[in-house]
């Protein structure tokens, strides 16, 4: 079983300061092939604001008169956190009726080892609506929906049952046109069959399953997520025309 990968895009990088005439500007360079947003939190009073960025776009986050503000004061006053997607207040509703394909090859069948609301690790907002399939090391993982590959982590070859192994879970994230994201987790080291920027079609092979990260057994951890002001939360989906909640522990999922 598993606890899956990170919820946020990048908490530290890509904030840049620019001087323009008499202004000191704070800008965010979105490095991703999907929308992203910056959450700006005033450390002193707790106020928050949000600035959205289109894929690969540079966006103005804040601007000050340069005689009234300096970079050190800005960094001591504000916390900048970057997340995938559009922030919750303005994003479009996702397609709740979209029928996702099973994330493995046709003609294959796999047992569910943890379903929705599993009491082992599927019990937080981030993981509540995710599924674990008992793929073995080297089995092929397929795309469940057309989308763009925005992140690949595949260099790790560590596995363990304590939280220190969480960062070692190789995974792929794919962005869908309704502003949802799919994660395919616990991949084999260098087991990706695609690259960042690829536009993948449903049922396309994208990776080999593995045994990496925080997990007790080899398997594929799969989930679909929407963006919120605190990062990803998992959402319920239709999977092979069956509500995801019906993929309960020990059920056999057959891709025919």
What's the structural blueprint in terms of helices and strands?
Elements: E1 15-20, E2 23-29, E3 36-42, E4 48-53, E5 58-65, H1 71-77, E6 78-84, E7 99-100, E8 109-114, E9 131-133, E10 140-142, E11 147-153, E12 159-160, E13 171-175, E14 180-185, E15 187-192, E16 199-200, E17 205-209, E18 213-214, E19 220-228, E20 231-234, E21 238-239, E22 242-243, E23 252-254
Parallel strand pairs: 7-21, 12-18
Antiparallel strand pairs: 1-2, 2-5, 3-4, 3-6, 8-9, 8-23, 9-19, 10-17, 11-13, 11-16, 13-14, 14-19, 15-17, 19-20, 21-22
The dominant shape is: elongated
Q: What is the rounded distance between the termini?
A: 25 Å
Radius of gyration, CA atoms, in whole angstroms: 20 Å
Order of helices and strands: EEEEEHEEEEEEEEEEEEEEEEEE
Q: Biggest β-sheet: count, sense, barrel?
A: 9 strands, antiparallel
- Proportion of residues in helical segments: under 10%
pLDDT < 50 runs, ≥5 residues: 1-12
Count of folded domains: 2
| CATH architecture grouping of the largest domain | Distorted Sandwich
CATH superfamily of the largest domain: Glucose Permease (Domain IIA)
What number is the mean pLDDT?
Answer: 91
Query: What is the helix tally?
Result: 1
The CATH class of the largest domain? Mainly Beta
Into which percentage range does the β-strand content fall?
A: 35-45%
């Amino acid at each position: 079983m598993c606890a899956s990968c990170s919820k946020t895009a990048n908490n530290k990088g890509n904030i840049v300061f620019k001087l323009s005439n008499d202004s000191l500007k704070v800008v965010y360079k979105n490095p991703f092939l999907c929308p992203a947003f910056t959450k700006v939190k005033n450390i002193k009073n707790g106020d928050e604001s949000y600035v959205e960025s289109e894929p690969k776009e540079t966006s103005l986050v804040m601007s000050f008169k340069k005689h009234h503000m300096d970079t050190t004061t800005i960094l001591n006053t504000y916390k900048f956190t970057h997340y995938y997607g559009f922030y919750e207040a303005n994003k479009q509703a996702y397609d709740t009726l979209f029928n996702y394909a099973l994330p493995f090859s046709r003609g294959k069948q796999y047992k569910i080892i943890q379903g929705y609301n599993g009491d082992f690790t599927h019990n937080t907002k981030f993981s509540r609506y995710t599924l674990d399939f008992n793929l073995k090391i080297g089995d092929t993982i397929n795309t469940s929906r057309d989308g763009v590959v925005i992140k690949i982590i595949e260099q790790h070859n560590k596995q363990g049952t304590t939280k220190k192994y969480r960062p070692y879970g190789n995974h792929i994230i794919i962005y869908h046109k309704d502003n949802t994201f799919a994660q395919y987790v616990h991949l084999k080291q260098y087991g990706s069959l695609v690259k960042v920027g690829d536009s993948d079609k449903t049922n396309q092979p994208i990776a080999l399953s593995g045994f990496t990260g925080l997990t007790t057994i080899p398997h594929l951890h799969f989930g679909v997520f929407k963006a919120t002001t605190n990062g990803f939360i998992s959402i319920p989906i239709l999977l092979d025309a069956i509500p995801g909640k019906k993929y309960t522990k020990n059920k056999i999922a057959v891709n025919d």
